Amino acid sequence: MPEASLANHEEAVAILDFGSQYSQLIARRVRECGVYCQVFRHNAEQSAVESLAPMGFILSGGPASVYEPNAPSLPSYLLELGKPVLGICYGMQVLAHELGGQVIASTQREYGPAALTVVDASHTLFRNLPANLRVWMSHEDQVQRCPPGFRVLASSDNAPIAACGDEQRHIYGLQFHPEVIHTPRGIDILRNFLFGVCGCHGTWQPASLIANTVAAIATQVGSAKAICGLSGGVDSTVAATLAHRAIGERLACIFVNHGLLRQDEARHNLALFRKHLGLRVVYADASARFLRALRGVIDPEEKRRIIGREFIQVFEEEAQKLGSVRFLVQGTLYPDVIESNAADTRAAARIKTHHNVGGLPEDMQFELVEPLRYLFKDEVRRIGKELGLPDEIVYRQPFPGPGLAVRIIGEDTAERLECLRAADAIVTSEVASAGLSRGIWQYFAVLTPVQTVGVMGDGRTYGNVVAVRAVVSEDGITADWARLPGDLLSRISSRIVNEVAGVNRVVYDITSKPPSTIEWE
Ligand code: XMP
Q1: Residues catalogued as catalytic
Q2: Which CATH superfamily does the domain covering 10-197 fall into?
């Protein structure tokens, strides 16, 4: 789906992507400021960029060095347009390099927090900000000498020119990343650029996203039929609700029970769909065939491929019953896109085959409709609220499409699934009883393939180890382990060992992401 579907703007900003992992994060921050924006490749057609009528440009970072052969350069039209420009990291370096400054290629990478000293606190870019700020750096090269007409606006120990600008031409550069959460006041710097320099007013509302996404789905699907894989999570429910608004009864939602759901989840979801959604929902209980297909499979990527294939087969069979269905609506979010390195991303390495339903087979018959492809979870939650979805759906913790298969390390047998479901239900209910569920991104149990010795009553046991994972996160891309209270962990542990047959040890995962991932796989 073209990103223009997010539009309905009186004012907009263009983000030119030089290959950064963070380009969509910049876009999200700009949206948070109430300004519509669109991400273009740095070498996109001028006419495409100009059709947005941007009031300013933000140049993203990127992995290149300006001295590399074929390093991306500034588009020739950029400065001719005379609009404000903010270059971030590589964006700043390429500005400095092409405008007559000097960039030095450093062999020393600066990665992590830095203390920024603002040289002129009254400057528009740093208006209403303290003179000392915590910022996040991630660079090798840096600007050594400003181009003519520029002056230094801020510096850090390692980067004497950490921010610079030419007030006459409204061109600015930041060596650090204002878009990441590790630059706590970064959004204020972006706001100062958008409002103080570009003259935006911040009138864009996420609600306009709904109307325009609905219109874009209607255009894409035309008079054809679509199905939507509905899992009961916030992403697929929002995607289904938007698609339903767009094409009405030509949408059928399919809720597939792949046998890898949590305790009581199928029954609970069906009741929820009936009560709240007003969608046409087909229930396909395919648990037996999924488990058959997964028999003896241990490799996590192989599991994902099998699950993806089975999902599509079930969708195809159900679609056949509904008559010629051309489209499959999915609630894929931007973090899924970058982490699985799908379609149009060039930046991130593939971390997991991580599409909504696992790995999709290449010969799939459906065309995909992915209305949430450029959004982050909390933005989708806000849309869900706006659409009137119940809190129970809007604030549900994320649950992977391949379900408990990613939380059973080793083979997914019916017996091991039963064991994990029981342990997971204890984690869920105890976290909820402690009143902590809203503040924690995800909390769940993992069944490890490890067996250890224990002692219960007078006897020696040899049982399974269950791991408990709970993380706090803003978007699932990075996460920290949740500091759950000791007495809560203790209750979880003793209940699991006492109530779940075959488990004699519980461990708590205290790794952040990175270096770990949230799911164990
Ligand atoms: P990881 O384990 O990569 O997970 O740190 C990041 C977030 O993505 C969820 N996840 C998935 N979601 N399909 C999904 O829809 C998947 O295949 C999948 N795998 C992981 C995970 O639960 C976490 O929120």
Answers
A1: 89, 177, 179
A2: Class I glutamine amidotransferase (GATase) domain (3.40.50.880)
Contacts of 456-460 spanning 24+ positions with Cβ under 8 A: 456/497, 456/504
The closest-lying atom of ligand 1 relative to the alpha carbon of residue 235 is: 15
CA distance 255 to 442: 22
Beta carbons of 248 and 279 less than 8 angstroms apart: no
pLDDT digits (tens, 9 = 90+) for 108-158: 778 889 999 999 888 999 999 999 999 999 888 999 999 999 999 999 998
Q: Which of 199, 201, 200, 177 is nearest to 189 (CA)?
A: 177
DSSP, collapsed to helix, strand or coil, labels residue 232 as coil
First to last CA, the chain: 30
Nearest Cα residue to atom 3 of ligand 1? 517
pLDDT in tens, 237-289: 999 999 999 999 999 999 999 999 999 999 999 999 988 899 999 999 999 99
**Ligand 1 atom closest to residue 333's alpha carbon, by position in its atom list:** 15
Of the options 3.40.50.620, 3.30.930.10, 3.40.50.300, 3.30.460.80, the CATH number for the domain spanning 206-394: 3.40.50.620
DSSP codes of every residue in 107-119:
SS-EEEEEEEEES
Contacts of 317 (CB under 8 A, 6+ apart): 284
Specify the CATH number of the domain 408-508: 3.30.300.10
Distance of CA 37 to the CA centre of its chain: 18
Estimate the crossing angle of helix 414-433 against helix 486-499, to 10 degrees. Answer: 150
SS3 174: strand
CB 133 within 8 A of CB 185: yes
Which H or E run includes 512? none
Among 258, 336, 338, 443, the mutation site with the greatest number of ligand 1 atoms within 8 A of its Cβ is: 336
Instruction: Note the Cα 166 to chain centre separation in Å.
Output: 35
